[in-house]
Amino acid sequence: MKLEKPDLCAPGAGHGTHGPRLVLKAGLCAACGQVHFPKTEFGCPRCGAAPDRVALHALDGAARLLAFATIHTRLSPLITPPCVVGEAEVAPGIVEEVMLVGDEMLYADGMALRAVGIPVARGDRQLMAIRFEPAEDAA
Ligand SMILES: [Zn+2]
């Protein structure tokens, strides 16, 4: 199955509860030494270094949940409510808005998360989308 956002993630090692684990494609800048996500084709968003100074840096998909809420209205044609969205720290100092698997009952602020690939329908195709799930049961 193809990834919905191959510019943001790649298949990782192993399986989570709801699907295969994903790694996130971040950039590591040789000029300032900082990691940023997502990696862009324009170079480093922090210091402006050229693209050839930025190396692909895979984040392992582990994240920490900072806050979350259930969305009950259809904000986008790509989202079928109800769904749970959160803010997660995917690397030190890098906070992303993420979609969480399942019901909000599964989640608590500060919880460890991991990125997994979940099949979603996009027209008549199935694509693998990035979602986050509790990592508490990780072996
Ligand atoms: Zn930089």
Main β-sheet, spatial strand arrangement: 1-10-9-6-7-8
Which term fits the overall shape?
globular
Q: Briefly note the structural class of the backbone.
A: mainly beta
Low-confidence stretches: none
- Ions, cofactors, ligands: which are bound? zinc ion
Helix content: under 10%
Our measurement of the CA-to-CA distance between the termini, rounded to an integer number of angstroms, reads: 26 Å
Description:
This protein is mainly beta and 139 residues long. It has a domain at 2-22 and 61-134. It is 0% helix and 53% strand. It has strands at 2-3, 9-15, 20-29, 35-36, 54-59, 62-71, 83-91, 94-100, 112-122, 125-134. The strands form two sheets. It has a six-stranded mixed β-sheet, with no helix packed on it. Strands 2, 3, 4 and 5 form a four-stranded antiparallel β-sheet that branches. A hairpin with a 2-residue loop joins β7 and β8. The protein is globular. The chain binds zinc ion. Zinc ion (ZN) is lined by residues 29, 31-32, 34, 44, 46-47, 49. Residues 29, 31-32, 34, 44, 46-47, 49 line the site of zinc ion.
Search tags:
single chain; 139 residues; mainly beta; six-stranded mixed β-sheet; four-stranded antiparallel β-sheet; binds zinc ion
Compact description:
This protein is mostly beta strands. The chain has no helices and ten strands. It is 0% helix and 53% strand.
